[in-house]
From TrEMBL:
<dbReference type="InterPro" id="IPR009081">
    <property type="entry name" value="PP-bd_ACP"/>
</dbReference>
<dbReference type="Pfam" id="PF13193">
    <property type="entry name" value="AMP-binding_C"/>
</dbReference>
<feature type="compositionally biased region" description="Low complexity">
    <location>
        <begin position="969"/>
        <end position="979"/>
    </location>
</feature>
<keyword id="KW-0596">Phosphopantetheine</keyword>
<dbReference type="InterPro" id="IPR025110">
    <property type="entry name" value="AMP-bd_C"/>
</dbReference>
<dbReference type="InterPro" id="IPR042099">
    <property type="entry name" value="ANL_N_sf"/>
</dbReference>
<dbReference type="GO" id="GO:0009366">
    <property type="term" value="C:enterobactin synthetase complex"/>
</dbReference>
<dbReference type="GO" id="GO:0043041">
    <property type="term" value="P:amino acid activation for nonribosomal peptide biosynthetic process"/>
</dbReference>
<dbReference type="InterPro" id="IPR010071">
    <property type="entry name" value="AA_adenyl_dom"/>
</dbReference>
<dbReference type="Pfam" id="PF00501">
    <property type="entry name" value="AMP-binding"/>
</dbReference>
<dbReference type="GO" id="GO:0009239">
    <property type="term" value="P:enterobactin biosynthetic process"/>
</dbReference>
<dbReference type="InterPro" id="IPR036736">
    <property type="entry name" value="ACP-like_sf"/>
</dbReference>
<dbReference type="InterPro" id="IPR000873">
    <property type="entry name" value="AMP-dep_synth/lig_dom"/>
</dbReference>
<dbReference type="InterPro" id="IPR020806">
    <property type="entry name" value="PKS_PP-bd"/>
</dbReference>
<feature type="domain" description="Carrier">
    <location>
        <begin position="979"/>
        <end position="1053"/>
    </location>
</feature>
<feature type="compositionally biased region" description="Low complexity">
    <location>
        <begin position="11"/>
        <end position="32"/>
    </location>
</feature>
<protein>
    <submittedName>
        <fullName>Amino acid adenylation domain-containing protein</fullName>
    </submittedName>
</protein>
Length: 1061
């Protein structure tokens, strides 16, 4: 039996039934025969929230073989509908309560002969078409029938009913009555049961609030965080996938369940919950469980007696599998005891719409037996899936199977691809196997990947092999200078030096440093402005075997002093003849033009495993961390990219970044070691987009390296510039890139290659690369590609376990780029640089990046921002990158930043900053963002800037963002209503107060204030009664604060012709 809203529905664990009870208190709507039971309210709300109302149907399809009378079947069907009030009813939802009333419309019956072409798919397309037709619940009746005759004399009997009034057992009863005509069994009293259930629900409001508070404490998201589906798909569009739990697993699981005193159904629920939690990166999940509440006295009653209850699954990783299973079993039993409560009323506030926290639900897979009558056999058909899924994931397993158990997974395309759905079934079977075979194992040891999937994930993290470079940076430079001594190596607007000149001058610096006592392994400070001499000094330091320590003169004196002390610098090379006054007395100052006493002093051969530079990055304690990067790290980056990017002597590179920022190591050394020309960009020019654009044009720069924020400023300038650029390769790094901002670049420079590279100082600038395409600019992409040759990148959870494709985790980087560690910080080095459990080279290490990412099913990596970029506002966990992404999808926005103010306090709020496109405005921007985000994720303010402030390294400078503009997105009221905004809000708050009977503030959440599904219906009617524009039920639920509802109502008042929808 197939449920159009969720699939095959079968009898779940039996919860306590309502066999009668006092109907007092149950609202009986005007014109209605009886009120909706709480479980029916849940179906109605799910249907109201769906994109295609009327699609929550249940279908029974049987192949009739033998002798049958079509007219007799039609009469029996009409008698069936008349005999059972649930089928002959219609929905009444135009008052303060919901109910059912008798429909005056005759039930639909079709008798048709299928064309010969139907034999090609055994009539499946026609049965599917029957399934896809919605049922008009407001007019009724709520069941229709069809007899589809075949050429071979057989026929398909197809009964379709609204899920409001039938479950699987009801459909079996209906089929039996139509085929046998047997009406001797009592039809029961469904209206009486529903009335009693509605009354009980009113008395259970306190239990619902308590259950909701319990579930609100779980770390739940509002949608699957690990899906890789099609965002353009409909809410319920989906597919289905059969799978099998192997015989040995299913039998062993039965034995384990008996030993532990639990059911296999509880074990299945626990397995689904474990996979959900691990995939969601949390220690808890919420699993829906189908429960039947049909009383014995209503055995043959046609009605809807089932419900979906949320079962919390909490992971105690240090505990045993057995303890986890027993706990889950107790949670299942507790949930079943509350099966009379409407699902919407127990879900935490903010989860009543969208995917909600119920990413997955479980149900028994049930197929009714064939009916054998004199001269006729009716065989249930494997009904074709009609493409709608009630939950993002819906898991069915044949609980009655003795051997291998059949399973079926239905999934929503919006959240999950077919490949990811298949992986989920393998994860589920892998966990069930662990449960069955290792009940005494610690839960933390249970893998959600089988060995084959685990190996596939690890293999995807490996870059192509890369032969180690045996020469150091200065040795490679000297070789390059010998190949092209007269080519220009570097110019800075005043000076240009050939390769031979740079080589000779750096030898001079190296000899002067050696005479000053500098030896291999030392660290030498370099304090110079950007110039050709800077490059000479850096190379001179390297020729001694020492590492250079950048001391950017633009940095504060206190910062420079801290770096000097942290790196134990004893000699500083500078571009001034006299030592700076702030330089500590014990530091030797060596002007870059110092001549050595012995100009022929031999220089050492530099070991490629020696440190090349020590660049300091910001630290969480406020103390910068010095990162030691070796020559081999740098030359590996060179060899990993040279061939792919086509880097060579014809390229002109810009040195845009401070040499204290590791992006500069890429710009300087990869340029010079491939024979290119390096154009030094003065600091003042780097901070002026117009002057920088002119420099790029004048110098005919071909390779441009930028942070996305800095490039945004350049791109705005380029759109106004008359002259074009010669750039053939743009390399992005340093911060996340939103590819949609690059559309103007692709329009103007269609032949330029754009690479989005992810990397960190501790792994030598770049670790991955992804070629950005025009398609990326249309769809938006956070993909950073695949590991560079010689690099490894793994997505691991908090316990160091590989996670499944699509699942977010921490990026761990290994291979050729991993630095030596932090300067004199052994404990921090041990914490962040860990042993690689599966190294390509023995003794390999991994760097824990602190960045969040995921491996997509296609094998490429997606960067999701910093792990610490997650904030909590009003109890909800929010990824700032997700909010920024929603703003950037607005055509009026070209750049965006989102920050949280008051973090960790009750006044915490999100504030947005945007750069607008030409003609763009902030009016309505946040309301449009609200169409893409849950209410709690919508920023409270939006401030327009001419440009986002950037740091010296080209990254977003949050400290320089101005105070947010209050009420920046508040639109004016309708014409002729000067104070419309305040008036509407006051009226909405008043209606809320009357319905909820509690004090109400503009930002209060309806469900936090004790709102229920039934109260939402009353609120909908009360708003209309107060003279406010009509709102659909789904709009009431999705705009769950007075402020959000007021904004919607103002929009509705401004567009009187718009339907409520």
């Amino acid at each position: 039996m197939i449920d159009r809203s969720g699939g095959l529905v079968g009898p779940g664990p039996d919860a306590s039934a309502i066999d009668g009870g006092d109907p007092a208190g149950a609202a009986r709507p005007a014109g209605a025969g009886w009120p909706l039971a709480p479980n029916q309210v849940g179906v109605h709300l799910a249907d109201a929230l769906a994109e295609r109302p009327g699609m929550h149907t249940v279908v029974a399809a049987y192949r009739l073989t033998g002798t049958f009378d079509g007219e007799l079947l039609a009469e029996r069907f009409r008698a069936l509908v008349r005999r059972h009030p649930a089928l002959s009813s219609r929905l009444v939802d135009d008052g303060p309560a919901l109910g059912m009333a008798r429909s005056d419309t005759a039930p639909e019956w079709r008798d048709e002969t299928l064309p010969p072409s139907a034999a090609d798919d055994d009539g499946a397309d026609r049965r599917l078409a029957e399934c896809l037709r919605p049922i008009d619940t407001r007019h009724g009746p709520l069941m229709r029938g069809a007899l589809l005759r075949r050429e071979d004399g057989d026929a398909d009997l197809v009964l379709t009913a609204s899920h409001l009034v039938v479950d699987d057992q009801a459909m079996e009863t209906a089929v039996a009555e139509v085929l046998t005509g047997d009406t001797t069994r009592s039809p029961g009293d469904y209206p009486g049961w529903a009335t009693a259930a509605a009354g009980a629900a009113l008395r259970g409001a306190g239990r619902a609030a308590a259950r909701r508070a319990e579930l609100a404490a779980l770390p739940l998201g509002t949608e699957p965080a690990w899906g890789c589906g099609d965002a353009a798909a409909g809410d319920a569009d989906g597919g289905q996938l059969p799978f099998t739990v192997p015989d040995d697993v299913w039998r062993k699981l039965a034995g384990t369940a008996r030993t532990l005193g639990i059911s296999r159904y509880s074990a299945l629920t626990a397995a689904v919950g474990l996979v959900l939690a691990r995939n969601g990166g949390t220690d808890a999940s919420l699993v829906g469980s189908f429960v039947t509440r049909r009383p014995a006295a209503q055995r043959h009653t046609i009605g809807y007696f089932s419900n979906t209850v949320p079962v919390p699954v909490r992971l105690a990783e240090d505990g045993t599998v057995a303890g986890f299973l027993r706990t889950c079993h107790r949670q299942c039993l507790a949930a079943y005891r509350d099966a009379d409560l409407p699902l919407f009323d127990v879900l935490p506030a903010g989860h009543q719409s969208g995917a909600g926290p119920l990413t997955a639900a479980v149900a028994p897979l049930w197929t009714p037996p064939p009916l054998r009558l004199p001269g006729l056999t009716a065989r249930p058909l494997p009904h074709p899936f009609a493409g709608a899924a009630k939950f993002p994931l819906l898991v069915y397993v044949d609980m009655a199977a003795e051997g291998a158990a059949r399973g079926l997974l239905q999934f929503r395309h919006r959240w999950f691809s077919a490949e990811q759905a298949a992986l989920f079934t393998r994860q589920l079977v892998a966990v069930l196997r662990e449960f069955a075979e290792r009940p005494d194992a610690r839960l933390v040891s249970v893998s959600v990947l089988d060995e084959a999937d685990r190996q596939r994930v690890l293999d995807a993290g490996l870059g192509a092999p890369l032969a180690p470079e045996e020469l150091s940076v200065p040795a490679l430079f000297t070789r390059r200078a010998g190949l092209s001594p007269d080519r220009i190596a570097v110019n800075d607007g005043r000076t240009a030096l050939r390769y031979a000149e740079v080589d000779e001058r750096s030898d001079t610096v190296a000899r002067a440093l050696a005479e000053a006592g500098v030896r291999a392994g030392d660290r030498v400070g370099v304090r110079m402005e950007r110039s050709c001499d800077l490059i000479v000094a850096l190379l001179g330091v390297l020729k001694t075997g020492a590492a250079y320590v950048p001391l950017d003169p633009s940095y504060p004196e206190a910062r420079l002093a801290l770096v000097i002390g942290d790196a134990d610098v004893r000699v500083v090379v500078g571009d001034a003849d006299s030592r700076p006054a702030d330089l500590p007395e014990h530091i030797d100052w060596l002007p870059v033009h110092t001549r050595p006493r012995d100009p022929a002093r031999p220089l050492p051969a530099v070991d490629p495993d020696l440190p090349c530079y020590a660049i300091h990055t910001s630290g969480s304690t406020g103390r910068p961390k010095g990162v030691l990067v070796t020559h081999r790290n740098v030359t590996s980056l060179l060899n990993a990219t040279r061939e792919d990017f086509g880097l060579g002597p014809d390229d002109v590179w810009s040195l845009f970044h401070s040499f204290a920022f590791d992006f500069s190591a890429w710009e300087i050394w990869v340029c010079l070691l491939t024979g290119g020309r390096l154009v030094v960009v003065p600091r003042a020019v780097s901070r002026n987009p117009e002057e920088f654009h002119q420099l790029l044009e004048d110098e005919e720069v071909t390779v441009l390296s930028q942070t996305p924020t800095a490039f945004g400023l350049l791109l705005a300038t380029d759109r106004l510039a008359r002259g074009g650029l010669s750039v053939r390769l743009v390399v992005f790094g340093g911060e996340p890139l939103d590819t949609r901002t690059l559309a103007p670049w692709f329009e103007r420079y269609p032949g330029a290659r754009v690479e989005n590279m992810y990397g960190i100082t501790e792994t030598t600038v770049h670790s991955t690369t992804h070629t950005v395409t025009r398609e990326d600019t249309r769809t938006g992409s956070r993909v950073v590609g695949r590991p560079l040759p010689g690099w490894e990148i793994y997505v691991l959870d908090a316990h160091g376990r590989p996670v499944a494709p699509g699942v977010a985790g921490e990026l761990h980087v290994g291979g050729a780029g991993v630095a030596l560690g932090y300067l004199d910080r052994p404990e921090l080095t041990a914490e962040r640089f860990t042993t690689d459990r599966h190294p390509r080279v023995p003794g390999g290490r991994l760097y824990r990046s602190g960045d969040q990412g995921r491996l997509l099913p296609g094998g490429v990596l997606e960067h999701l921002g910093r792990l610490d970029d997650q904030v909590k506002v009003r109890g909800f966990r929010i990824e700032l990158g997700e909010v920024r992404d929603a703003l950037l999808r607005d055509p009026s926005v070209t750049s965006a930043a989102v920050v949280v103010h008051g973090a960790g306090t009750a006044e915490a709020r999100l504030d947005a900053y945007v750069v607008l496109a030409d003609g763009g405005s902030t009016d309505g921007l946040l309301r449009r963002a609200a169409a893409r985000l849950p209410e709690y994720m919508v920023p409270q303010t939006v401030t327009a800037l001419t440009a986002l402030p950037v740091t010296a390294n080209g990254k977003l400078d949050k400290a320089r963002l101005p105070a947010p503009e209050p009420d920046a997105d508040a639109p004016a009221g309708p014409a002729g209503s000067p104070d419309a905004a305040g008036d509407v809000l006051d009226r909405v708050v008043g209606v809320w107060r009357d319905v909820l009977d509690v004090p109400v503030a503009p930002d209060d959440n309806f469900f936090d204030l004790g709102g229920t599904s039934l109260l939402a219906l009353r609120l909908k009617t009360a708003l209309r009664g107060a003279g406010l524009p009509e709102l659909a039920l789904k709009e009431v639920i999705r705009h769950a604060t007075p402020a959000a509802m007021t904004a919607l109502l103002r929009d509705r008042a401004g567009a009187p012709g718009e339907a409520a929808g």
